[in-house]
Amino acid sequence: MKPDQITSLAPSPDALRRAQSLAHARKWTDLGQSGSYLWGSCQGSGSKAYLVAVDTSDFASKCTCPSRVFPCKHALGMLLLFAGQPESLPVLALPEWVGEWRRSREGRAERREGGITNNEQGTRKVEGNPRNDKRINRMMLGMQELEVWLQDILQMGLAELSQQPFEYFEGVAARMVDAQAPGLAGLIRALPGSMAGEGWQERSLSQIGHIYLLLKAFQKLEQWPEDFQDELKSLAGIHVKKDQLEAKSGISDVWEVVGKRTESQDRLEMQRLWLWGHHSRQFALLIDFSFGGGSFSYNYMPGTALAGEIVFYPGILPERAHVKLPVKVQAGEGVLIPGKSFSDFLNVYANALSINPFLSTYPAWLSGVSVFSEAENIILLSDGGKKIPLHPAFQRSWELLAVSGGQPLSIFGEWLANRLLPLGILTSNYRWINLS
């Protein structure tokens, strides 16, 4: 069992981060394994330890904790522990409670052979009406609470909201995790970060509006076309599994790796890799997670190219993708992305927003960008003389000035919160410089 198999099971990055803290033998008692079954006890916040069991043959899990997220952090933590330290779970006879769970699962499997189970009937209903899905109903209830909270903070006012401690937002985010809407939880956790620096009022109000628009659209889920439903589900935290993507046909091309960005939170790292198809002439985004210094599934570097097939996740504007193996990694053939002026890019971005109003990042390839130093700050100007705002997360602005040598640059990056986060440069003599 590999850690990346476990990461694909997690309902959110936050759930993975919490599970990582439990991937230590000292956090557990009564550990054991027999065949494909793992079990143990994990002390929670209550007086009694939680009983946790996992079947590694299909990753089904059982836990006595009150979480409504599946799999819960305890089941994920046990799987991570087993992947890293299998010797910490001795081979023993099944405890009675695990044996009872196994017999119950075997009974359901036998009934399935004779006809359609209740779960299968539920799945068929979901295809006709998403509200019949238990998870979606749970998410709807959580969103009702979130809507009340959003109305309360608007009545509170941005000035008072900006003075609230992190715990104020974390409590609501945790409620969204319990409601199995980790995507909304992530948006709420990002709110405090939007309340810093110049123009914070506009950014935070925009973020609040973004959350409100998402939950109102989700509350009318069954009214939207299928691709828009897929987009809303993904934003809220319902993700298509990779094995489902493997069964679909994709786009074969030579995919140039043009940008890379990583984010860290505690021991959890997220990697974003941008690809450009030489023949399809479109961008694709690979998102990957790593824990505790582990390696990423996608170990591709800017300047290389992938000759193979990728499959896009469903949505309105396909962007996130999955690489189907095998794939040939080779030296890059040269960056052939047609750069745009800043004005043209803003028009393209505005059109993308009209199709998908929930866009949070967008690939930006800008040509004719001049770099200047002004009062110890680096300024980017478009070929039309318009200032291009730099994202505060970018820490290599002086390198832009040094590389430019007074000549215009072509810059690739992410357009994030109406600011540019550069990821790479194409110099006037066609030399590619990675900024990640």
Query: Helix amount, in percent?
Result: 25-40%
Q: What is the terminal separation in angstroms? A: 31 Å
Counted beta strands: 15
Biggest sheet details: 6 strands, antiparallel
Shape: globular
**What is the alpha-carbon Rg in Å?**
24 Å
The count of domains is 4
Helix vs. strand class: alpha+beta
> In what range is the share of β-strand residues?
25-35%
Care to describe what's here?
The protein has helices at 3-7, 13-20, 73-84, 96-114, 118-128, 134-156, 158-161, 166-178, 182-189, 191-194, 200-218, 226-236, 242-246, 342-355, 397-404; strands at residues 28-34, 37-42, 50-55, 60-63, 251-265, 268-277, 283-291, 304-312, 321-331, 361-374, 377-381, 387-388, 409-416, 419-426, 432-434. It is an alpha+beta fold. It has four domains: 3-114, no CATH class; 131-236; 250-331; 342-434. Helix 6 runs antiparallel to helix 11 (200-218). The longest helix is centred in the N-terminal third of the chain and has 23 residues, at 134-156. The chain is globular and about 75 Å long. Residues 115-132 have low confidence and may be disordered.
Throw out a few tags for this protein:
436 residues; alpha+beta; 4 domains; six-stranded antiparallel β-sheet; five-stranded antiparallel β-sheet; 15 helices; 15 strands
How would you summarize this macromolecular structure in one to three sentences?
The chain has 436 residues and is an alpha+beta fold. The chain has 15 helices and 15 strands.
Topology, please?
Blueprint: H1 3-7, H2 13-20, E1 28-34, E2 37-42, E3 50-55, E4 60-63, H3 73-84, H4 96-114, H5 118-128, H6 134-156, H7 158-161, H8 166-178, H9 182-189, H10 191-194, H11 200-218, H12 226-236, H13 242-246, E5 251-265, E6 268-277, E7 283-291, E8 304-312, E9 321-331, H14 342-355, E10 361-374, E11 377-381, E12 387-388, H15 397-404, E13 409-416, E14 419-426, E15 432-434
